[in-house]
From TrEMBL:
Name under which the protein is recorded: Branched-chain amino acid ABC transporter permease
Cited CDD domains: TM_PBP1_LivM_like
Subcellular localization: Cell membrane
InterPro entries per UniProt: ABC_transp_permease (IPR001851), LivM-like (IPR043428)
Keywords, sorted A to Z: Cell membrane, Membrane, Transmembrane, Transmembrane helix
Organism: Microbacterium protaetiae
GO molecular function: branched-chain amino acid transmembrane transporter activity
Keyword check for tRNA-binding: no
Length: 354
């Protein structure tokens, strides 16, 4: 039995899921404070990378402003906490606020393509930083704002770092599960068709414009969730949270983790948090150079990102085993795709779903 066939068995998948759940429950209780805080930060930025993956990896839009929505979600969170709003309401507003802003931007920019929409999204962090500095009464200006609202309750018997990590794990797991269902369902199929060829999508009754709007809005909402989690863990935000440099690092994290991949988003979050720490240990004066070198090496060796590493290893193993004594493997003709089957279950303009 091959390794692939083994892991495709239902009981193996369920066993793996059970092991992961047990690990997520136990690890926060046994790991040191620094490890818990690091894992929590990875969860925060994995969610941010996931949002960027929805709009870029799955739909093919160029977005360089995802960090703006993370910062906006963080500011909404700290504002609500400082005004003693209910924390559930704060969380909902941290999600809805960026989603509404993203929807308005998408309605105006989704008809653009290529560099045009890239320039629109570049403007978000460039405008957001000075705007946050000017609105000092709300944002705290250049000094930023802090808020402690995730201290562990006494009844839990947990330390603060453990409690915060559990919050991040629960919310991150829910967001990843919902996003996985989205991209593997009818909307995900529509995103893929729009990404592949907008003309073909239009001929199938799928509106590229509206699906771009949907993807951008969903990505903005996920960015707001990341902003809320950012305040859960970091408990401080400032205009620099949404700086353009962070936006570029977020984009590099998505590419290195793996575009259009749920697991790749987790790997991207790990890259965002761990690589700067690693390069700072090696040489604090050359962190940017080392990070650039790591990016180039990964792209050359693994063009599909870190998530493609198992496939690359498996391909190398097959090559090492040869092709069975030099015999030419038989090939099966590839059937032409059926447009009707490709669009089955996808809401189209003719069905009233734009």
């Amino acid at each position: 039995m091959s390794v692939t066939a083994f892991f495709e068995k239902a009981w193996v998948r369920w066993a793996a899921i059970a092991i992961v759940i047990v690990a997520l429950v136990v690890f926060p209780l046994v790991l040191p404070v620094f490890a818990n805080q690091t894992i929590a930060r990875i969860g925060v930025f994995a969610v941010a990378v996931l949002g960027l993956n929805v709009v870029m990896g799955y739909t093919g839009q160029v977005s360089l402003g995802q960090i703006f929505f993370v910062g906006l979600g963080a500011y909404i969170t700290v504002y609500g906490v400082l005004h003693d709003w209910n924390i559930i309401l704060v969380f909902l507003l941290a999600c809805i606020g960026p989603a509404v802003v993203g929807l308005l931007i998408a309605l105006a920019a989704a008809r653009l393509g290529g560099l045009a929409i890239a320039m629109v999204t570049i403007a978000l962090p460039i405008v957001g930083v000075p705007l946050a500095k000017r609105l000092g009464d709300i944002t705290g200006g250049s000094q930023g704002l802090s808020a402690r609202f995730t201290d562990a309750p006494q009844w839990s018997g947990l330390y603060d770092d453990q409690w915060q990590l559990y919050i991040v794990i629960v919310i991150t797991a829910i967001v990843f599960l919902l996003t996985r269902n989205l991209v593997r369902g009818r909307y995900g199929r529509a995103f893929a068709i729009v990404k592949g060829n907008e003309a073909v999508a239009s001929s199938m009754g799928i509106s590229p414009y509206w699906y771009k709007v949907i993807a951008f809005t969903v990505a903005s909402l996920i960015g707001g969730v990341a902003g809320f989690l950012y305040m859960v863990v970091i408990q401080f935000t400032s205009p620099e949270t949404m700086s353009f440099a962070h936006s570029i690092t977020l984009l590099a994290s998505m590419v290195i983790g793996g575009a259009a991949s749920i697991i790749g988003s987790l790997l991207g979050g790990a890259y965002y948090v761990l690589i700067p720490q690693l390069t700072n240990i090696i040489d604090p004066n050359a962190t940017a150079l080392l990070q650039g070198a790591i990016l180039l090496i990964v792209l050359f060796v693994l063009p599909g990102g870190l998530v493609s590493l198992p496939r690359v290893i498996a391909r190398l193993v097959r090559r090492g085993r040869g092709t069975g004594g030099g015999r030419t493997p038989q090939t099966t003709p590839i059937a032409e795709p059926d447009p009707a089957a490709a669009t089955e279950g996808i809401p189209t303009e003719r069905q009233g779903h734009a």
